[in-house]
Write a structure and sequence with these properties.
With 269 residues, the protein is of the alpha/beta class. Helices cover 37% and strands 23% of the residues. The strands form 2 sheets. It has a 6-stranded mixed β-sheet, sandwiched between helices. β9 and β10 form a beta hairpin.
């Protein structure tokens, strides 16, 4: 049983969105969406294109104020930018005039950490994500996968309680994408961090997550399903697709997702 306080928010969830309504002109993008994410869980959000997945993340990040509903972290409502969360966008937001090291330490400097300490911690995080020796490289000198590693270090170095990720690997080739997904699991495992991950790729969602939630076709999207992923951890993503249990889970979720995709296409026809 989920315990809610007087506001209707789950007091024990790392992230709680309750009855979220997001209007856009004459349309409603999200219609009374409720989502509680327990601390330390990896939850992916899937759904048809245009159903409001990124909008949901923007609400959680405090970048978008909903027209209705309430948002909280660990039972505490907030307004404005969610400073207890980090956000990894689909396109990286590296400053082109700063080196990899300077980009990674930027968040710590914004928090007024001593520059020497920030420098040392940024070095450590670049090594942790496999970029030792590239500290002084500028973004244009890095491959797409390397830029994503810098962005990962940016997100994790500030020690957020929740990490929001909006299709962060969609632009990468399949092999680099697989390596980055494994990288994410390595960083997350044992960290206690909560991850909310938006993706169009159902295989990616299942491979990474403890739970997958499905948004319905828009406009007026609502949650159409929640699915617990009981695949054992740790997970070797190279072998995941050979797992019969993986295919069973995929088939079950795809059956519902396919219906929402077809509804989305029908509404646009």
């Amino acid at each position: 049983m989920i315990a809610h306080d007087a506001t209707g928010l789950d007091a024990h969830s790392a992230l709680s969105l309750h009855d979220i309504v997001v209007p856009f002109g004459s349309r409603t993008v999200l219609d009374r969406v409720t989502l509680d994410v327990d601390a330390g869980r990896f939850v992916s959000v899937v759904g048809p294109s245009g159903c409001g997945k990124s909008t949901l993340l923007n609400v959680a990040a405090g970048l978008l104020t909903p027209g209705g509903g309430r948002v909280a972290m660990f039972g505490e409502p907030f307004s404005g930018v969610n400073r207890r969360a980090s956000y990894m966008f689909q396109q990286d937001v590296l400053l082109p005039w700063k080196t990899a090291l300077e980009n990674v330490q930027l968040g710590l400097l914004f928090r007024r950490l001593d520059r020497r300490d920030a420098h040392a911690r940024a070095h450590g995080w670049l090594e942790r994500v496999g970029l030792r020796g590239f500290e002084n490289s500028f973004p244009y000198q890095l491959s797409g996968g390397m830029r994503k590693r810098v962005a990962l270090a940016q997100c994790w170095i500030v020690d957020p309680e929740v990490i929001l990720m909006d299709e962060p690997f969609s632009a990468l080739d399949v092999h680099t994408r697989l390596r980055m997904e494994q990288e994410i699991l390595g960083l997350w495992t044992g960290s206690g961090k909560t991850v909310v991950f938006v993706t169009h790729d159902l295989e990616e969602a299942i491979s990474l997550s403890d739970e997958v939630v499905l948004l319905s076709a828009g406009p007026g999207s609502r949650f159409a399903g929640r699915y617990t992923i009981d695949l054992p951890r740790p997970r070797n993503l190279l072998d995941m697709k050979a797992n019969a249990q993986f295919h069973d889970v995929y088939s079950r979720i795809w059956s519902d997702l396919r219906q929402e995709v077809m509804r989305s296409h029908a509404r646009r026809a």
